[in-house]
Amino acid sequence: MIVPRFSPLRTAALRLAGRGAPVTYGLIALCAVVFLLGPVSGLVPAYGTGEQVLAAQYAYYDRWGVIPAELFRGRAKEALTPLTALFVHGGWLHLLGNLLFLHVFGTMLEQRMGPVRYLLFYLGCGYLALLGYAAAFAGSAQPLVGASGAISAVLGAFLRLFPGARVTTVLPFLLFLPVRLPAWVVLPFWAALQWAAARGGGEGPGVAYLAHLIGFALGFLYAWSRSGSLRVRTPATATEGDSQP
User: Fold this and answer.
1) pLDDT by residue (tens digit) across 80-124?
2) SS3 of 166, please?
3) Per residue in 23-35, pLDDT tens?
4) How far apart (Å, rounded) are the C-alpha atoms in residues 44 and 7?
5) How many CA atoms lie less than 13 Å away from 86 in the CB half-sphere?
6) Taking the CB of residue 79, how many other CB atoms lie within 10 A of it?
7) Contact at 8 Å (CB) between 129 and 211?
8) pTM of the full predicted structure?
9) Count of H-run helices and E-run strands, the chain
C-alpha cells in the first residue's frame, strides 16, 4: 500500500506554480458525483433493492463501461466508452482508492504540466490504457470501468518528473510498518506487482492489471519525451533528503 507524504518538494512545486489544481479537483468531484448518483453507491432509492438494483448495476456497466467484444465494431457509442468508463467505478473501495492516488499524485503533476495539458494527458492516457486492454482481450464481454488506467499514467509521469519525492509506503512483509522511500523505489516496485498480477490473471472479473501497466508506461514515456518543456525553471531547495526534480 502506498500512502504519499506531502513533502517539501511538493510545497515548492505549488509555490512555483502559484495556483491550485482545478483539473484534479474537478476530476475527483466528477467521479464522486457520478458514483453517488449511480446504482452502485446504494444511496439512490429509485434503483430499487435486491435483484432490481443488481439489474440496474449490470445495465449501468454495460452502458458506460468498455466491453472489448463490442468496442471494435466501428460504432460511435462504443468508441466513446473508454472515456465514459474513466468516471465509473465498481464500488466504494475502488472509488476511494483511485481518488486518493489522484489527489496526492495528480495535484503535484498538474502544477508541473499546467491544467490544459494535464487534462488532455489524463484523458488521452486513460483512453489508450483501456483501449489497449480491450485489444488484448478482444473477445471478452466483461465490462471494464474505472479511472485506474489514467491514474496509473499519472504515477508513471510522476516517477519521471519527481523521482526523488519521498513516498510513505506500508509493506506487508515488514509487518505493515510505514517506510519512507523515494518514488524511484516505490513506483517501479508497484509496477512490478502489476506486471506479476497481469501475467497470472485472465480476462475475467477483477482488477485490470494490464490497463494499469499500459497507463503507467504511457505516462512515463510522455513525461520522458516532454521533460524539457515540463522542467521547473526556478530551482527549489530540497530538504529532508528530497532531491530536486
Assistant:
1) 999 999 999 999 999 999 998 899 899 999 999 999 999 999 999
2) strand
3) 999 999 999 999 9
4) 39
5) 26
6) 14
7) yes
8) 0.81
9) 11, 3
